[in-house]
Specification:
elongated
Length: 464
């Protein structure tokens, strides 16, 4: 009798649960129950994915900029060098202080920004500093493919370990008072040959110092690169703030009074020159435009994105509907992407990716599920794209987009998955960016893998 009661209780609980779940597929549909066919879930791999190159991207005027030499075991070698525009103090006409000026030291101050990616433990880096041969114009948009002309004379260098979160102590110079030590956020301080400052600043003509644009044209600018022969280990990508400067620490003797001061020449803008050297494995994937790939690649620094389409799924659903004289309403469509096991043990996957489509003019636009102007959107947070370390997955809710494709309300001119930065929290990004350095290797349409890309759909058929 004990077993009978237990079985009966279990049966009653099961019926209650199943009865509760019965209406889940029909919530909010507003469908006539007399014409409704039961909802169905589809777990399918009828998805086509192909790795493609990211579009060319403007790298000047960014909030944070990449300085990189990274030898990735999967993605090959990435380099990013920086050109910098140097300005007069205050970015305006400048008059030198009266008295006799002598330079103690000159430092290029580079502040870390969020987003370091690579080896911060075993790798050491050597940064070399040069002068540009061509003027850097802050009013010009520079693409990441630009190769800068550089004067070969070394202005300064520093060997360091990447410590983007460690604060340091520096000497704070106070006019007319004793100097003091202060703690500042993590930064690099590259010594610069004082002769560069003497020649281009202190010995500059009054006409050059009377106009910031004239000064920028005369001094050309600076060029920063990580020395490949002196960087040890795998290396990495260092993200730097755009609020940097050349600090000139000097003494001024005036009427027998000697005081110390800092003259700051701001870096008004950086532009990154980015190069990716891919191995044969990835080159083969970017050359493949005919079959769906078992593996696809996403890479920051305007590297790689993935084109995705659902031709078989949509064709099959349309065919079934036509034969049976039925219509369909999608309750939920969720795309699930899983990084390849073993690809993230050393270097973590991208923290965030995005999904977007092209319009008829092949311009990037948001999916309706990501657009706050579409009433079907569940909001930016529900749209997805964030990496979950607990499930090792990315999720996108694309119900409205697939419904539009299914009903031929829109045309798929190209749909893509791509890296995006994590700074923007208020909207869904879809523009190419060099401001994120991570990468992801994901399982594509490999039917032998339990981690293959999946499209989970809950839909309801309606009799016409």
């Amino acid at each position: 009798m004990k077993f009978f009661r237990l079985d009966l209780l279990t049966l009653l609980i099961s019926l209650f649960i199943l009865n509760s779940c019965k209406n889940q597929d029909t919530i909010g549909l507003g469908i006539n129950s007399q014409t409704q066919v039961n909802g169905t879930m589809v777990d399918t791999s009828t998805i086509v994915v192909n790795t493609v190159f990211e579009d060319s991207v403007i790298t000047s005027g960014l909030t944070k900029v990449p300085l990189s030499y990274f030898q990735d075991p999967i993605f090959g070698t990435t380099e990013s060098n920086l050109a910098a525009s140097l300005s007069l103090p205050g970015a305006t006409a400048y008059s030198l202080p009266s008295g006799t000026i002598s330079i103690d030291s000159t430092r290029l101050v580079l502040r870390y920004s969020d987003g370091f990616y690579g080896d911060s433990v075993a790798s050491s880096y050597k940064l070399n500093l040069y002068q540009l041969k061509e003027p850097y114009s802050p009013n010009t948009s520079y693409y990441g493919s630009k190769v800068w002309q550089v004067n070969p004379t070394l202005l300064g260098s520093i060997t360091f370990k990447a410590r983007p979160h460690d604060s340091i102590k520096i000497t704070n110079i106070i006019a007319g008072k004793p100097d003091s030590l202060i703690k500042v956020p993590s930064q690099l301080r590259i010594p610069i040959d004082n002769n560069f400052i003497i020649t281009n600043f202190f010995n500059a003509s009054s006409a050059t110092l009377a106009s910031n644009s004239v000064f920028q044209n005369a001094v050309k600018g600076l060029y920063l690169t990580l020395d490949k022969t002196q960087t040890t280990g795998a290396g990495g990508t260092i993200m730097l703030s755009n609020a940097d400067s050349v600090n000139v620490y000097c003494k001024i003797a005036n009427n027998g009074v000697i005081d110390t001061t800092i003259i700051k020449l701001p870096i008004s803008q950086f532009a990154a020159s980015i190069n990716h050297a891919y191995p044969a494995t990835i080159k083969a994937e970017t050359d493949n435009h005919t079959t769906s790939a078992n593996v696809f690649y996403l890479q920051g620094l305007a590297g790689l994105r993935t084109k995705i389409s659902f031709p078989n799924l949509l064709a099959n659903l349309r065919s079934d509907l036509s034969k049976n004289h039925e219509d369909i309403v999608l309750n939920r469509a969720e795309l699930v992407i899983t990084p390849t096991p073993g690809s993230y043990t050393q270097y973590r996957p991208l923290p965030k990716i995005s999904m977007y489509r092209l319009d008829i003019a092949h311009q990037r636009i948001l999916l309706p599920d990501a657009s706050t102007g579409d009433p079907r959107s569940l909001g930016i947070g529900s749209f997805g794209g964030y990496y979950s370390s607990k499930t090792n997955q990315y999720h996108f809710v694309i119900t409205a987009y697939l419904q539009d494709l299914l009903l031929k309300r829109t045309v798929d001119y190209g749909t893509y998955i791509a890296p995006v930065d994590t700074l923007n929290k208020s909207t869904v990004d879809y523009t190419a960016t060099p401001s994120i350095a991570a990468r992801t290797v994901a399982v594509g349409s490999d039917k032998t893998s339990q981690y293959r890309i999946k499209l989970n759909i809950i839909y309801t058929k309606i009799k016409q």
